[in-house]
Specification:
Layout lengths: L7 E6 L2 H12 L7 E5 L6 H12 L13 E5 L5 E6 L6 H5 L3 H7 L2 E4 L12 E8 L5 E8 L1 H15 L2
Parallel strand pairs: 2-5, 2-6, 4-5
Antiparallel strand pairs: 1-7, 3-4, 6-7
């Protein structure tokens, strides 16, 4: 019996640079309408991962935590957008509904930090990444895909990372 479900895999990052590079690989395969939910305590590496995702997706903008503005929008030269939502300061899904998540998903992928706080406002299908702080440099990332698109995305990412 496998330790992890078929729709998931685990990655251990050994440095912030490695977390960014992993994010770059993930960002390079994102499409409009994709939802990436991130969870993990403060310092788990969520924003570092998003920095890589934005770069891999093709944005020249430097990603930063949108804790106080709630949503940062990163752009690409082709006028597509990557939405980066931080749900830390939201009281729950009701507040998230006011942000018009559906409209964001029509114009690009959406990455949500603290996604567990607003899960009811997010589509049921997505790529969920649970991040854990191991020590000063190491981070554990457990990825789980829900829905056909995200199983395909997970498999593409697995092949890219593990070159299988």
């Amino acid at each position: 019996m496998p330790i992890l479900a078929q729709n998931s895999f685990e990655v251990i990052s050994r440095s912030p640079d490695q977390t960014r590079r992993f994010g770059m690989r993930l960002g390079s395969i994102l499409h409009t309408g994709d939802v990436i939910g991130l969870s993990g305590d403060l310092g788990a590496g969520k924003t570092t991962l998003v920095q890589g995702m934005a770069a891999g997706w093709g944005s020249p903008d430097e990603a930063s935590s949108p804790t106080f503005v709630l949503v940062n929008v990163y752009r690409r030269p082709d006028h597509c957008h990557l939405f980066h939502l931080d749900a830390y300061r939201l009281s729950g899904a009701d507040e998230a509904f006011d942000l018009d998540i559906e409209a964001m998903l029509e114009h690009g992928p959406l990455v949500v930090e603290w996604a567990e706080r607003i899960k009811a406002a997010l589509p049921a299908n997505g790529l969920w990444i649970s991040m854990k702080w191991i020590d000063e440099f190491h981070r554990d990332m457990l990825l789980q895909g829900v829905g056909e698109r995200y199983l395909t995305l997970l498999e593409a990412l697995r092949k890219e990372i593990f070159k299988t």
